[in-house]
């Protein structure tokens, strides 16, 4: 039974795509739940949202998307047999991930200083769940990027970059929905 | 039988089936008590009967898994089992422990004794000495099969089976931790109960199912393994945080309501994948295996697991629904079909496949075995529906309108009678299965009778 299937055309390993689809389902379900609970109390959610630090999150968007571009670029460099440059790009991408986490950390610390916790308002339950979950994936992504910088077979870099783009993508959707949507 | 030590499985399967018989007798008895509440109330109270029903289930399923491992690991690793003696010693420990539990509970021996007395924590009721025995038996088992696999060929099936069995044993250690804070007690309790049936047991299920598909359909190992990895990945991805669906109302923080709802909803995915896997393999397969009964049980397992664990699980897993349905007969409906579909059918599939091989004969009594599948499965599905209807009415009367518990129970008595009837059908199906497995006759359903079972 060696017929080729459409799955074989996927870039990278099948398993990384199983993971990516699972993650997108989880974050998608989380956002859908957020939006439906928000619909029951738009004023309260709007007021809660005003407590967020939008500028920091905006900067973080730029940081994370740049990091994603570097990871993609790393794969191109590796395919062009520039191993050293590819590794450097991956390490810098990982460092930008750390920058994202640092800014996120300031944001959480600010919330804590204002006396805002996960049970202050339903908005914050979702805020902490979704951004906290995402931040955990950034931590995992930084580790993955460093791993594939070390074991730098093109196939590995491809899988690492695919995971990192998923982390990017989730943030690019979380950011407007949580921070900006009025 | 290619390897002599596969024979160990015969003892495990036989003891498992004996316990299965006890489990179903307990179930029928509990069903009688539901409709005639004073039946045997002095001799064998309901709580003891229920404990026997659930614990003998868990023990016989585990014995089936162990037996399945002893049966398939020699073939997968192309290696005799490391030690036959240890395997039988393990079985003896487990049987002594099981008898110990039964005697301790039925006669309430050593009440209050730290080591010898009953513990009364649902599903983990075993006295501490039995728990210790289970750990020793598990260590013996893991040592035995791990040594076998390490010496021989490593396949995805045996690796995932081993990972599942190791995790099963490690998670059982939480059974020893019983904090006096009730919320914490429950939190750790689910580390055993949930992470078993909705975590590592799924690994065991997927690997045994994969082995059966490999043998029965003749599809390439490479294809089977790809499916196996996807199933296992989605099972762990959804199942681990899916534990949150038990944390809605036990005093844990409110964010568990969302974590539990979202992840446990995804628990349907691995069950759907297992069902698709089984059917796709049969469609793609080019082998016309004579053991049709094993194939029927395998397909039935994947299908009923999808409905029992997947669909009926999702039915009441969202916290907004569970707020009303928690602990009603809806839970009982789900519990019965999930355990039956996922783990009972799985064991009966591997028994049906392995028993003729272990007894060195062709797969006789196929028609009776298949009839027993339809009887047992029909009975269980009927039971699931009656309990679902009972639970729906109960949820509405008790949780929405606010009627008293016992008044509601009176109103749904008719469903309990029907449940008893379906339980009797399951019992008859089981008798038929035992007959078909143990009593040899001459008849094989096969288009080509010269093809011997492997």
UniProtKB/TrEMBL annotation, chain A:
- Kindly list the biological process annotations in GO that this record carries: aerobic electron transport chain
Q: Does the keyword Magnesium apply?
A: no
Q: Which InterPro entries match?
A: Cyt_c/ubiquinol_Oxase_su3, Cyt_c_oxidase-like_su3, Cyt_c_oxidase_su3-like_sf, Cyt_c_oxidase_su3_a-hlx
Q: What is its main location?
A: membrane
Q: Which Gene3D superfamilies match?
A: Cytochrome c oxidase, subunit III, four-helix bundle
- Residue span, Heme-copper oxidase subunit III family profile domain: 16-182
Q: Where is the signal peptide?
A: none
Q: Give the membrane topology, semicolon-separated if more than one.
A: Multi-pass membrane protein
One Pfam match, given by its short name, reads COX3
Q: Which SUPFAM superfamilies match?
A: Cytochrome c oxidase subunit III-like (SSF81452)
Q: Which GO terms describe its cellular component?
A: plasma membrane
The transmembrane segments are 14-37, 57-75, 87-106, 126-150, 162-181
MF-aspect GO terms: cytochrome-c oxidase activity
Q: Does the keyword Magnesium apply?
A: no
Q: Where in the cell is it found?
A: Cell membrane; Membrane
Q: Which UniProt keywords apply?
A: Membrane, Transmembrane, Transmembrane helix
Q: Which family does it belong to?
A: Belongs to the cytochrome c oxidase subunit 3 family.
Put simply, this protein is called: Nitric oxide reductase NorE protein
Query: Whose protein is this, by species?
Result: Roseovarius lutimaris
From TrEMBL, chain B:
Q: Where in the cell is it found?
A: Cell membrane
Q: Which Gene3D superfamilies match?
A: Cytochrome c oxidase-like, subunit I domain
* One family name in Pfam for this protein: COX1
Spans through the membrane: 12-37, 57-74, 86-109, 129-150, 157-177, 189-214, 226-249, 255-282, 294-315, 335-355, 367-393, 413-438
Q: Which GO terms describe its molecular function?
A: cytochrome-c oxidase activity; heme binding; metal ion binding; nitric oxide reductase activity
Indicate the principal place this protein occupies in or around the cell.
membrane
Domain of life here?
Bacteria
Alphabetical GO CC annotations of the entry are: plasma membrane
Record has Iron as a keyword: yes
Which family does the record assign? Answer: Belongs to the heme-copper respiratory oxidase family.
Provide the function of this protein: Component of the anaerobic respiratory chain that transforms nitrate to dinitrogen (denitrification). NorB is the catalytic subunit of the enzyme complex. Shows proton pump activity across the membrane in denitrifying bacterial cells. The mononitrogen reduction is probably coupled to electron transport phosphorylation.
Protein name from the UniProt record? Nitric oxide reductase subunit B
- Identify the species of origin: Roseovarius lutimaris
